[in-house]
Amino acid sequence: MSAKSYKCEDCGAQLRTVKELQDHGEVTGHANFSESEEAVLMVICVDCGKPCRSATEQELHTQRTGHCQFVDKTDEVEAVNTESDMKKLKEEMMDIDGEEDVKVTEDKEEEKIPAEVNQTLLKELTEMGFGVNRATRAIHFTGTSDMAQAVDWIMGHEEDADLDEPLMVSKTTAGGGESSSGPKLSKEEAKAKAEELVRKAKQKREAEERAAEKLREQDRIRSGKEMQEIRRIEQEQERERLRVWRKKEKEEEARAKARIKEKLEEDRKHRRRKLGLPEDPTEEELLAKAEKEKKAGEQAKPKAEPVVGRPAIKPVTAHTDLRALLVKMKQTHKDENERVTKAFNTLLTYLGNIVRSPTEEKFRKINLGNAAFQTRLGSLEGGVDFLIRCGFQKDPSGETLFLPPDKIDMEVLNVGGGEINSALTNPFFGVL
């Protein structure tokens, strides 16, 4: 049966080809391989072409790059059929393994000791501020007693990860190291050159730090401008949303007023139809209404000499006060429509009797303790206040309301009657 992959019995790695098997053996030293029926995946990233050999590798690739489209080409890879090659490879790996064992054994037998360097030069370098480990490495790898060359080596290897780690060398090569090929300098010249190298290195670092700080400042400025632009856009969007909301609110308010106006007009026409009148006012009615408004305007003008002891009541003020009292009564008892309607009719009856017969005292006198009065009007908040605003007064005992003849103001009574009629016929009275 043809195998689909190779498996390292030492570490469990799945290998597709003989070449991969050889590379694995060279890197790890493993030589125990066998053929496997388990296929190694070959999933290719559509965006960058990277092959992924397992689901885990595919997931890691997606997390790092964001690529998420793959093509499964596992079935396109031919099965491995290298029985003879496998035997040959095992023999080769056994030979390599034997050589590696010899080499490892030799390495284990080799003893590691700290590197021995010129102590005088080491002391001079440490006095200049260099660490002992990096100074030791510089002296050992340059094989020099020249300070300038040692400093030059340190400056060129500052990025080495193990620069500050202790240097351990084999016992057989303890005295080795790179030989110095530069000319010998005097102690003063070497120190001056070393100081010059240190100064240049310091200047280089400072220049790099200034450049990095300049880049960071540019990034901060750019980020600040971007944030300002984002805030500006957000503010413009918020203003636009507010403008649209206000426009819709005004349109809805206009539609509501139009509906109310239409309803009032329909109610007016309905009342005229019930009375047997045409829906629209006749010319005579329009003329009468204009004449009435003209007379009301003339009566509203202030008199030159008002009657002494009788303060003038402005119709506008009376209209506002009486309407406010009726609205208060309706809103306070909004869940008792029948009771409120009965109270409004009672008030209309009182005012109508006085207007028709102002000289009749019985129409101008109300007993507050009367049970019928209390049931219909007195127990509702604002009912008694409405009568007082129309001119009624309480007697000293507080048990009776009385409207003196000299306090009768037909204009106020008519205004009150008109407001009561509006409250009874207008379904939106007190709503707006």
Task: Tell me what portion of residues adopts beta-strand conformation.
Answer: 5-15%
Measured between the Cα atoms of the first and last residue, the distance is 93 Å
* Quaternary structure of the protein: single chain
Q: Give the ordered list of helices and strands.
A: EEHEEEHEHEHHHEHHHHEHHEEH
Tell me about the largest β-sheet: 3 strands, antiparallel
> Structural class given helices, strands, pairing?
mainly alpha
Instruction: Kindly report the spatial arrangement of strands forming the biggest sheet.
Output: 2-1-3
Coarse morphology = elongated
Please provide the count of β strands: 11
Could you list the spans in which at least 5 consecutive residues all have pLDDT below 50?
Answer: 176-182, 304-314
Q: Quickly count the helices.
A: 13
The rounded Rg comes to 55 Å
What's the mean pLDDT score?
78
The share of residues in helices is 55-70%
Q: How do you describe this structure in short?
A:
The protein is mainly alpha-helical and 432 residues long. It has helices at residues 18-28, 55-65, 83-109, 119-127, 132-142, 147-156, 187-274, 283-300, 315-332, 337-356, 371-378, 383-389, 410-425; strands at residues 5-8, 14-15, 33-36, 43-45, 51-52, 70-72, 112-114, 168-170, 365-367, 393-394, 400-402.
